[in-house]
Amino acid sequence: MNRPAGRGSRRLTRWWRRQSLRTRMTVIAATAIAASVFMAFQVASELLDRELQDTAEEQLRADSRVLAASAERAGLAQVELPPYPGSGRLVRVVLPDGSVRTPVGQPALPPVSEQARRVVQGASADLVEAGDSDEDGYLVYTLRAGDGAVQLARVADDSPINQFGLGMLLIGLLCVVCGALVGRAVARTGLAPIDRLTAAAVRVAHTRDLDADIPDEGGGEIRQLIRSINDMLAALRDSRQAQRLLAEDAAHELKTPLTSLRLNIELLIRLDRRGTLGSALSSESRTRLLNDLGSQVAELSTLAAELTDLARGDVSDESTELLDLADVVAAAATQACSRTPDVEVVLDVTSVWVSGRPAALQRAVLNLIDNAGKWSPADQPVQVRLRAQGASAVLEVDDAGPGIDAADVPRVFDRFYRADSARALPGSGLGLSIVQRVVDAHGGRATVGRSARGGALLRVDLPAVPLPRLTTVRP
Q: Global pTM?
């Protein structure tokens, strides 16, 4: 039996959600006014009904006292009862034996109630009966007089209440209509900035023009919303600019290895077509050419991997966990030695716990070691130190190379930036940029300095966490 009601409620909810905010505000305003008018009508009707009943009772009491005085002077059986004029109050005299006298032509009143008979018998002085259960709705007042009682009654007249209700209904309808119109106007005025904001957003979506800021208007929440959207547009502009620069820089960096690779391949194809591949190139030249091809393919692969990693930004599926940074540094050093066996890495690390993503941190440390390995002389190792300093984990990687020129220091961590002295060395200029991104994502800081051996000193500071306590479970 509850299913139709539940279905109707869901249908009403879906209808309400489909309506615009302007329509909702109009309906809410009209409903609030209608509820207010209904409550006011109920309260006013109750007060008016009580006031009319009190007035009628007071009038019946006054008339009853006059009639009772006449009855006591002339006697209940002889008191004069004028003929009924056709309207107004009704009169009845109750004699001691229970019989009654009424004016000529007067409509019959309801029988004398038991409570009224007690007044006749002298048990009480007077009685007011609202007559709610009577068909005619009489208001009857009984007053002890002599050995009996007199009764005055008035037909309950609902016409004032009905007229008042009709007036309130008309006023309520007018208020509801006016409230709906006012609510509509207020909604239109209040939502005008939202409409203009929507139009501006639609225009940006259609034209792809992120340079057009939305005018700051309105106040309070509207102004805050507009400023938030303008900040979002600014972030989108920066993101698009970064994407464009990334694409331009990538195209520039890919051009050199691709050109070299294409020339070498064209040379091999031309010699092969002539049938002179074996005679035109000596064994040493072929080996050198194949090594060049391999190194160029490896450089392209490294560049593609770094571009992919850099383009992902801070988005990663890797979860953050509590880890010992010393283990990460040791793993990165082992990987660096396996990739470049000629580079010696000397570790001086202590256990420092941080909260981070292991793979990302290992990639950053590996890039630092690879960068130092390019500059270190063959007989000088890359030194990697890790220690705790205050609330930070400090990682330092230095080499014994020529160091970084002061003019190049501000741009060391820029994407694709390579100093003039590094043009002849392999690399894409993305390694330290990836380091910077990883460090920033972990709330740290990366800086460049000069080592005691005269080379470059790259330092990374990361927030450290307290050493986790090990809980011993005793059997």
A: 0.45
